[in-house]
């Protein structure tokens, strides 16, 4: 492949290739959150309990996390273009089946199928973008990619809320049909197939053990609070299965040849540190989104669409800063950009620890914009420096693991903050209730004594509601504080990253010449 005088790859139809792979990523990213606001409607349609309906979300996340790492092997063995087309087709078909679902097992099964096909869309699209742009242009390319990955979950509740309220919850799945059709047509026309590696083999033992470990960990985190953790035999079994599978996976990886995960990848210090970084980002970003939706709807009484619109500026902050930072990458030390992103994120979380249901819409919008800006300072330089020193032949496998780390971080983060929210509500309720006695001086006020009398059933119910509200507010504050601490703890990791002496040479065989 020829290059221009500036070293830019001479790739025909590069704009069209970028557009079609970005569409595929947006389609997958939207589905991480677009169904959230529709859950109550889905729950009524399929006659599910509150606990059961959560599997509509977790089945998708787990399936996507499990199938992300093999995307590199599948691309090498069967061709990247072919696998991408199969993934787009399967994702669209599974989306239509989700819209047709009439029972809980059906929609959970189809969401599982949706996650299995959708897992390959992000890493394969990312590897194509890395191939068609020069090293100097990758910052801008990763900005486009980052916008599609990270803004999708923000737009999901807005679009999902509007579709659910004005059309039907089934359209949160049908919307993937036109997007998928455009992406399929673009990939078919403009992306060239890569060379096949017929000798490629999948390490079934490693893949199986990692899949079992991830799935059992997700079940452990999702059901632990409901079943009172280790007092339940199911939770004990899930913990043992997770630990055993992960142990076998680690031992097998370091003792066998041609394993599912190549341990030599982690000899690249930037890649190893980047894996930890993106895991923490997955926790803080999507977990905060998972908290904001019930906070706005339950505590503040916002309608579904209004809550989504108020959260929208978070995505605008991400988008603006991703494009800005995309131009700064290569001109400013990446480590300073990462430091700025973590500091901004920590500051936004610190501000949220002072929130109450009386917080103004402007405060929510401005703080959300700042938090989104912090992510914009993180995603682009982190992706760039993580793969800057990684050999091109290991890039497909590296992007798979990188996105696996982000997916697992997101699912673990959502499960942990949700479990902590429920647990802390009970603890805070008990602590506050200790101070509510008939002898409290506050009851000397006739107005309070009449409305919140501990001697009447109506008064006790009102008191319990007030205590529950206060306990819930404090629990949200505790979760925001935890994410602030995680952002601060990640700052020292910046010191472990190093600037590449010479950038890895790109392989451009994936695109049309």
Automatic annotation (TrEMBL):
PROSITE patterns: MFS (PS50850). It is found in: Cell membrane. It holds the Pfam family MFS_1. Residues 17-502 form the Major facilitator superfamily (MFS) profile domain. GO terms for cellular component: plasma membrane. It is a multi-pass membrane protein. Its main location: membrane. InterPro entries: EmrB-like (IPR004638), MFS (IPR011701), MFS_dom (IPR020846), MFS_trans_sf (IPR036259). GO terms for molecular function: transmembrane transporter activity. The keyword Protein biosynthesis does not apply. Keywords: Cell membrane, Membrane, Transmembrane, Transmembrane helix, Transport. It comes from the Bacteria. The keyword Transmembrane helix applies. The chain crosses the membrane at residues 55-76, 83-102, 108-130, 142-163, 169-190, 202-221, 227-250, 271-292, 304-325, 332-350, 362-385. This is Disulfide bond formation protein DsbA. It comes from Rhizobium loti.
